[in-house]
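User: I'm curious whether this sequence folds into something compact or stays loose and floppy. Could you predict its structure so I can see for myself?
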Amino acid sequence: MRPLRIVQAAAFPYPSPQGSQVYVRGMARALARRGHEVTVACYAHGDGRVDDEDGVRVLRTPSVPGYANMRAGPDPVKPLLDLALAVRLCALRADVIHAHNYEAPLAAYVARAVRGIPVVYNNHNTMSEELHRYFSHPAARRTARALGWALDHTIPRRADACVAISPRAVDQLRALGCRRVTHVPPGLDPVDLEGADGARARRRYALGGRVWVVYAGNPDPYQDLEDLVDAVLGIDEVGLLMVSASDLSPWEARAARLPSERKRFIRTPHWTEVRDLVAAADIAALPRRVCSGYPIKLLNSLGLGIPTVCAAGSAQPIPGVVEVPNADPVALGRALRALARDPARRRSLGEAARKAVLEHHSWDARAAELEGVYRAVLGYGHGPLQTLGRG
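Assistant: Here's the prediction. I'll summarize afterward.
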């Protein structure tokens, strides 16, 4: 069967050491390794900018002078970039557009109307669970909840097929009336973990011999990081290490009572530095209570051999995951303290985690599943599509 021309439509800065960006990058490279012509269509800016890497073409929107926002969430410039993304997509020759999150599918539907290119929608979250968390005023939160509900009930179902990255997302997309849904969990590219040097990061950031708990990812409100900060405040044995490409100052303020030797807040756009800092830690933590998607940072920490304490809403059935109840800083603290005091258990969990992730969660295996989705949409084969909701 002939190679496909696949566009990954990504309405966000690219690349960046954040979940959706890492997900798209790993997917695109794996599809290119299978011989396909892959283009990532994205915003003009990114951190550690890489174009045309590993056989993947990067097509960017025009830049907006002075604009370099790396954070997720609404802002007044993004609609302009999304319109520019739609224009870019309309000019492409492609067999299929694989559109991520919510803005990119809207741009892709314009290209489908103009060029007839089928669209595969990839869920990463739902707006009902996330959008209102960007606002603090009650009226704004109510409006955002209503808008989130409307987006959930209109955008996914218009796609020709949907990719769900978790079993719970399959159920959600079915309930939203999506026609075809295939569960394809995310993968990890082992090359991204090669060369990790935790010892170097410990020296550079003076981490010493203390046990460190790491959170590496975006610091937006829906991550429920207050549970993690409050848990660590009650544990004398550990330090808190937070790493992000975005501003961490709100969490520095919340952790003000922690002694300086027990906290590090590091802002970096570079994956290699993020990787080394995660490898330098002893325990990772994911306090997010509601996650209809799949936390890519979980695969990264487990792939680096770091046992990870997860709130139930973020936990996945992978060796190395220690699950605690949602919204329970006390339970989170107990789990962190127990691991901090038991280095043998940390080593055992970490070894099992790394082995499981590298053996069963590679992007190369996932790319073959995605190829089946694309070919089924194009009518080249039956593929793994399931009919859900509307016939």
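Summary: Residues 92 and 122 are 20 Å apart (CA to CA). Residues 343-360 form the longest helix (18 residues).
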